[in-house]
Amino acid sequence: MKGSRKASVLPGFGLSLGFTVLYLSLIVIIPLASVLIKTAGMSFSEFWAAVTNARVLAAYKLSFLTAFFAAAVNAVFGLLVAWVLVRYRFPGKRLIDSIVDLPFALPTAVAGIALTSIYAPTGWVGSLLEPLGLKIAYTPIGITIALVFIGLPFVVRTVQPVLQDLDKDVEEAAVMLGAYRWRTFRRVILPELIPPLLTGFALAFARGIGEYGSVVFISGNMPMRTEIAPLLIMTKLEQFDYAGATAIALVMLVISFSLLLLINYMQWRYSRRVQAG
Amino acid sequence: MAGAIHAHLSDAASDRPAHATESRGVRIALITAALLFLALIILLPLISVIVEALSQGWRVYVESITEKDALSALRLTLITAAIAVPLNTVFGIAAAWAIAKFKFRGKNVLITLIDLPFAVSPVISGLIFVLLFGAQGLLGPWLAAHDIKIIFALPGIVLATIFVTFPFVARELIPLMQTQGVQEEEAAATLGAKGWQIFWRVTLPNIKWGLLYGIILCNARAMGEFGAVSVVSGHIRGQTNTLPLHVEILYNEYQFTASFAVASLLVLLALVTLVVKAIVEWKSEQRSAGSEGGTG
Amino acid sequence: MRIEVRNVTKRFGSLKAVDNVSFTIEEGKLIGLLGPSGGGKSTLLRMLAGLETPDEGDIILDGKRVNDVPPQKRGIGFVFQNYALFRHMTVFDNIAFGLEVKKAKKNEIRERVNELLKLVGLEAIGNRYPHQLSGGQRQRVAFARALAPRPSLLLLDEPFAAIDAKVRKELRTWLKEMIEQIGITSIFVTHDQDEAVEVADEMLIFSNGRLEQQGSPLEIYRHPRTPFVASFIGESRVLQHPERLIGFEEAVSQGGKSAIIRPEFVEVGLQRELSYPLSAQRGIVRQSFFRGAHLELEVDVEGNRLIAYRSLDREPLEPGAEVLVFIHRLYVLDGSSAVLVENPLKTDPMPVHI
């Protein structure tokens, strides 16, 4: 085999790699394979019917659209938050920086009930908006807001390190050539931030598609209207429609894995460019 | 996605001369906008949990969290974490050791596999175990014949939790150990140290803060996992309900205050996690500001 | 552009990076700011550019006080040590940047950029990205970019520090030719003496934030006015016991005075080789080094360690050899000034009396 194995100097290669592969197989690969096995047991027409009926399509559409918009909102505001944290000084900055991680550390169910209670018609924000005719809870808007909560740290934390390490020289060069802040931001700084923004967007998007706990309370779960795909899977399981649940799961898995590959590819491309530059 | 989400705030980047930063008015506007956004999206939910939990007074709060089913939910959560976290820690260390200290083909595939649970919806994470071990699952008949219960029992919950949380320790350790390289370990080996000695005395001190953070994060997610556990648990009160599931049950029964009271325990857990993260970052900043790669 | 700096001081914390500096630079000159690291040269350069603000004093460009004028409006081109090229823009777009800011028309921009690409010899690579270029090429792009908007002043901050030694010399010569061809007032910062001497019309020597001396390279070399300049320029050495050198006993006799000598002031050889053998004194060769173009000798004269050069045409001298040494001149320093003292015993060895 190629590669210089340093196993001769450092011990434990066989043991550590062996254990790792075993663990992965038992916990990850075999269980995931069960999805394939189960769907393999279905005929293609069964499969197709399961994944394309109206209710399922509505659920996909809802999950994707809300995740997309939430990730887009996070891209804009996540950039804003990262910018403010890296470039400015203000009291309590360190505290605020820690809070950005809260959605990452907080159990999804807790986030779910908290968001619902705030945006329900009787809630703190919901009651303010109701007289204006704006409903948030039990609508796709509510779902989107929950996904904004979930996805924010992904954008902020991918943009922050890049922003921090930006070369000061380049901004000064733009200044000496006559550029003021907006032009410098637009033509010199922003292009550098596009790669991490895209990565953060993709991460938030991937997370949003599959999100369950924080969304299932605020969505109201009305089929065809506010029923997200993960909930649909859950419902089918409760009805013992394993085939249907698995078929939907397979489609979602394929999309999620594609996103994962895309994200890894983008990160690899970015690190190559940075090294070459 | 290999590589943890870390950021350090440096004051150097914030000290900017006039020509390299926005005017005062713009700065204040942007800071205000950012803070308002954060307050609305993040702080508000956080505060609402505490307010709602205490809305009927301290006594009701205490009753809610010491009620029988709440306590058994807490017990189940703790037991699950106590099994899942150490297992995942061992895995994380083994995987990081293999990946960081050796060269072999397929490393990238391995790293991508480790990231998989992040790309899988929690509900699907539970589904796969139902497909494998459920009554109608692939191993269902065999388990029934031997009277082994996995789904709707503790083992199923533990398995689902392990699946969802196993990347955390590994993702913390892999980039950390990759950055640290193999030199110190090799030096120890040439001085005659054996495998475990090398690990305990050379590697472990170097990775202790990253390891701690990975464990804390893994633990927070293990205790807080909802979707996957919801699928495999069967929601049997007093027996197969974890803390997050109990929160859901109370909420669906309109026992809002009790629901938030139990939820507040999980909020506390999240806050502790954030504090530990801040400490770990501070410590590792100190480290890189000080010596090159010394122990401690 | 004519530049006048009056009593400028800049502090960072309690440290004075620039300490009450004043000087004038005439239009069209190529000026080198030379001095050891931390001497304040870069800070001064950045203050001229507007990237730093003086705490005290005035900066006057073409008769106008510009302390409060933002860098964007000063009409100054700046070349950075690490090029600072916009890495996601092509070479063409980099150079065009300053022109786009001025809202020039597309065809004007194209003309001007092509003109500059030709000037710096990079016509073929307008479409490449910075990471595809070598260090020397990147610096030439940076140069072209700074010149595109036709500035009246060009500032260069250690422009060759990040470049390989071999390429550096070529680039240095190229730069001097370019600047002379264009005729723009230019100021560059360097800590490399050879570079400053070779490129600059005029040099300003800085140390610890103070301006030590201003003048042409030749003038500074031959007539250093402060102790720092005398010891910094050339291969100068401080003498341990200058009063023991024949001819200079009185010059350094007063307390507090020290002396500096350069190899070219020292003549070493056998009796028949010296110009003034009667006024020479004995010395012993301690070390002998081959330096390619000549021999370098370390000679001990009454406890003074002197460096001298010896031509390869002459018989080589080995360590331990006894030689005669004649000191033509040296610098006497008294704390605030440096005086060149010629050896008074430079007389005809054999006056003929008939």
From TrEMBL, chain A:
Keywords: Membrane, Sulfate transport, Transmembrane, Transmembrane helix, Transport. It is found in: Membrane. It is a multi-pass membrane protein. It comes from the Bacteria. Residues 60-263 form the ABC transmembrane type-1 domain. One of its GO terms (molecular function) is ABC-type sulfate transporter activity. The complex is composed of two ATP-binding proteins (CysA), two transmembrane proteins (CysT and CysW) and a solute-binding protein (CysP). This is Sulfate transport system permease protein CysT. It comes from Thermobacillus composti (strain DSM 18247 / JCM 13945 / KWC4).
From TrEMBL, chain C:
The keyword Coiled coil does not apply. InterPro entries: AAA+_ATPase (IPR003593), ABC_SmlMolc_Importer (IPR050093), ABC_transporter-like_ATP-bd (IPR003439), ABC_transporter-like_CS (IPR017871), Mo/tungstate-bd_C_term_dom (IPR008995), P-loop_NTPase (IPR027417), Sulph_transpt1 (IPR005666), Transp-assoc_OB_typ2 (IPR013611). Keywords: ATP-binding, Nucleotide-binding, Sulfate transport, Translocase, Transport. It holds the Pfam family TOBE_2. Residues 3-233 form the ABC transporter domain. It comes from the Bacteria. The keyword Translocase applies. One of its GO terms (molecular function) is ATP binding. PANTHER family: SPERMIDINE/PUTRESCINE IMPORT ATP-BINDING PROTEIN POTA (PTHR42781), SPERMIDINE_PUTRESCINE IMPORT ATP-BINDING PROTEIN POTA (PTHR42781:SF4). This is Sulfate/thiosulfate ABC transporter, ATP-binding protein CysA. It comes from Thermobacillus xylanilyticus. The gene is txxe 3364-cysA.
